[in-house]
Design goal:
By secondary structure, the protein is mainly alpha-helical. The chain is built from 17 helices and ten strands. The longest helix has 54 residues.
Length: 551
């Protein structure tokens, strides 16, 4: 073809480039990949060195303060067998219920502290029959006689428990490890429930001496659990104390108590505060978690971060019956592969030391808070230390908080999942101390009334005859609140975990988990008064009306 007039001829090479595909040289792509790999390697190295520095600094600080993170250093020595009732206690608690003809204790003990109005509670032993927990109909009832029969059938085991709790120690062979087994926890809770049931039987039969024996044993159980250094042990002790305080309230509503009997009960339930025990538990927890991170396998860590604690969950089945079944499991398989094949290796290489350092610092905050509460007898003293939510943390060496992001949750993989339970444990310990303090004070008030024939005008009147000092409210460190009422009763209360004095208002607080009346979820923690027959009937009528409205 002839060229158009005036058009310059194109060189052959340029013409070829116009029609041939472009071929880029390979070395820029390889260079880019190399730079990216180098940056990743540099990032991992910097994060690894940063973690080593953080961990070294935190360990040096602990050594300077004389604190140990070695489990063996914190494990209490075992007492000699002849002074330790643990073996007898476990054997007896495990036998409870074996000879029960009715099975009432496990499914039908009347509920304690059933509130029918704010600050007003139904007295359990005043009813000779009550609805079962399962299928609670008007005809499906449990009777006091059935409960008494069950308790009598287990008298031998209960007597063994009483004897074991009166030995100098109740110390179990505890395996202080995050991978350990805790066979003592359920028997302890079961023993507390049976002791409360036995105390209730004493009230049904007007046997105050028998009720007192069981209430004392409940107090001994709670006290002797102080030597168990795991946090879960102390949480079980708090639950047992809650059972015991409610059982004491029931008992104090019975007529006929003598002042010496009440004095015994008061001494039994006076004891070290729970945050003193929490301090030792947090110290052990720190040592256990430190060792746990050192020994944790990738499969255990994977199970931990996916909610299975440390028991690895099996992968989806390797064989599928259809393509649909495979496609259904495909997202989980991909996430699992990325987590185990990419993220966890990155965590171990870059961030595991940072996580361990953060965990040590975090537990240091818990320990400091528990010590402060124990020293000041005030939850309010550490309110500023408690995060408002689990997305808050402190950076290393920085007093201010900041919100955690994705990066922080990646590098603080274990520490970011260990915040909420510890702070809530401190609050639970203070609440348990508040109820125990209210109970002991109520006993002292009843002793004053027995001796002087009238209610104490103030709590100062109890000192020094019935108490060594006016008790402090564990929630704010101020004196426990008390006043006489126009109806001839008294109001005794703690301000509750919000630290706000609502004047003894027992109505449900705004964030209560239920809208129904509850002793433990009131705006203030008020030592309840027994409900009258009229108040009980009115509450039952409202309950029936509410049920009809839901149908």
């Amino acid at each position: 073809m002839d060229e158009a007039p005036g058009s310059p001829a194109l060189p052959d090479a340029v013409a070829l480039l116009q029609f041939a595909p472009m071929k880029l040289p390979r070395h820029p792509i390889l260079l880019g990949v190399g730079v990216l790999v180098s940056l990743i390697a540099l990032f991992v190295l910097v994060e690894h060195l940063r973690g080593r520095w953080m961990l070294h600094r935190e360990l040096a600080r602990l050594r300077a303060n004389g604190e140990s993170i070695v489990v063996a250093d914190l494990t209490p020595p075992m007492p000699p067998p002849e002074k330790n009732g643990a073996a007898v206690f476990l054997a007896a608690a495990t036998r409870l219920g074996w000879n029960s003809p009715n099975g009432v204790v496990t499914i039908g003990v009347p509920g304690a502290w059933k509130a029918v109005a704010p600050g007003k509670v139904r007295v359990a032993w005043q009813a000779r029959s009550w609805k079962r927990f399962q299928q609670p109909t008007a005809t499906n009832l449990v009777t006091a006689e059935q409960l008494i029969e069950d308790v009598r059938a287990n008298r031998e085991a209960l007597e063994a428990i009483h004897a074991s709790l009166r030995t100098p120690a109740l110390q179990f062979e505890v395996q202080y490890s995050m991978k350990g087994q805790w066979p003592r926890l359920m028997p302890s809770k079961q023993a507390a429930q049976w002791l409360r049931a036995a105390s209730l039987c004493g009230l049904f039969e007007s046997d105050l001496a028998g009720s007192l024996t069981n209430l004392e044993s409940l107090a001994f159980l709670v006290k002797k659990q102080s030597e168990d250094r795991m946090l879960i042990d102390q949480l079980v002790a708090i639950a047992d104390a809650s059972i015991g305080v409610a059982a004491m309230w029931e008992a104090l509503q019975a007529p006929g108590w003598t002042e010496p009997q009440l004095a015994r009960l008061q001494v039994a339930w006076s004891g070290p505060d729970f945050n003193e025990r929490m301090t030792r538990a947090f110290e052990m927890e720190r040592a256990m978690m430190s060792g746990f991170l050192e020994e944790m396998t990738a499969a255990e860590l994977d199970a931990f971060i996916t909610g299975g604690w440390i028991t690895p969950t099996p992968a989806p089945a390797a064989t599928w019956s259809s393509l649909d079944a495979f496609m259904k499991d495909l997202p989980e398989l991909c996430v699992r592969a990325l987590r185990r094949g990419v993220f966890l290796p990155l965590y171990y290489a870059a961030w595991s030391d940072q996580d361990k350092a953060r965990l040590l610092q975090q537990h240091g905050s818990f320990i400091k808070a528990a010590r402060e509460v124990s020293a000041t007898h005030s939850l309010a003293a550490v309110k500023a230390m408690i995060p408002q939510n689990t997305d808050e943390l402190w950076e290393f060496g920085e007093p201010q908080r900041h919100k955690t992001g994705v990066y922080d949750r990646c590098r603080f993989l274990v520490a970011s999942r260990s915040v909420e339970y510890a702070w809530s444990s401190i609050s639970k310990a203070c609440t348990a101390d508040a109820w125990r303090t209210l109970a002991v004070t109520a006993i002292a008030l009843q002793r004053y009334q027995l001796r002087h024939g009238k209610l104490a005008p103030t709590l100062d009147a109890l000192v020094p005859e019935f108490m060594s000092a006016v008790p402090l409210d564990p929630m704010d460190g101020k004196l426990l609140r008390y006043r006489l009422n126009a109806d001839g009763r008294f109001t005794l209360y703690s301000v509750g975990d919000d630290g706000v004095d609502n004047g003894g208002d027992a109505s449900p607080k705004p964030n209560a988990p239920t809208s129904s009346y509850s002793v433990v979820h009131g705006k203030d923690l008020v030592w309840p008064a027994p409900a009258t027959e009229e108040e009980i009937k009115e509450a039952e009528a409202k309950s029936e009306q509410s049920k009809l409205g839901r149908r």
